[in-house]
Request: fold
Amino acid sequence: MSAQELLELADDELILGWRNSEWTGIAPLLEEDVAFSSIAQNEIGHARAWYELAARELGTTADELAFDRRPDEYRCSRLVQLRLVPDWAATIARHYLYETVDAERIAALKESDDPEIAGLAAKIDREEAYHRMHAQMWFERLQDEPRFKAAVDELRPLLEVRDEHTPELAELWEEMTMVRRSVAGATW
Amino acid sequence: MGGDDDGAALGRGGDLVTEAQVWDALAEIPDPEIPVISLVDLGVIRSVNVSRDQVRVEFTPTFLGCPALEMMRDAIAARISELGADVQIDVISDDSWSTDRITSQGREKLRASGFAPPAPREVGGPQLVQLQSNAFRCPYCGSQDTTLENIFGPTPCRSVRYCRSCKQPFEQFKTI
Reply:
């Protein structure tokens, strides 16, 4: 697996983790406040693990890859770049779409010839199983809801788009890297 | 360890550090988030090797985003240094940790303090239909008349359930 492919994966998880965390404190239900915060924490943990593998290949560090690249160097899908707060239907549509495709990606990585990649993917998959169950539960609840169906149709094509960098990603990057850029040597 | 003499490893200043002593010391380190169980109970210590003046510990993370991981690693390093040995901790991010590695003693300690221990992992992993079933037992009253409140909880490793029998919400360790 090339460093570029690792970065696609890590960038998806990092940016989606940040987007999910935007529901912390303001989700429509307290239970979802807890759920999206927990999912965000997991995704950022997965991002770190993938960045660490990429960093070793590229001779840098996970933090530098996560926070010191320019917004237009990120390889994440356009789907995860979007700021969807306060649209709950679209948020659940993205969650469902992402988890469905991510499940296929993780399943393929578990079969990797590289034992380190396969092992990490298997470990991540144990956690992702709970994200998928959560997405499945909401899908079953909203599947006949017109706003949800429209959001799924609208967002689905964005999954495969990796070469477009939205202004929303640049804005998120500003927020995400603010401390690091303003305090020399700041680490997380 | 095949061929290892358990009493023969050397520490500094004439102190002897044995693998058994290291395991005993690790068994005193509480989990930072669930302090009723130790790191040994949690099953995150994969191996301990003592050779000459160095202790090597293989440590497997639980959940990758768990903020307690660094605290655990630092606590291991500090506790082994107290034994007078140099320590090397290797973090192994492979697939070797699962909740099935929590010891039976650890599971009992969890239950006694109000955390329902994780169900054994089945082939294919956990399914939503199982979580929504009443296969989970309340740690307070033992009833199986419990419902899923939230797949997620206060930390990555926990779900929240509710016992209809004793009207008590409780935390259920996730099976991973």
Remarks:
- The CA atoms of residues 15 and 84 of chain B lie 7 Å apart.
- Chain B touches chain A at residues 63-67, 93-98, 125-128, 131, 149-156, 160, 174, 176 (CB under 8 Å).
- Strands of chain B lie at 45-51, 54-59, 86-91, 115-116, 146-150, 158-163, 168-173.
- The domain at 116-173 of chain B is CATH 2.20.25 (N-terminal domain of TfIIb).
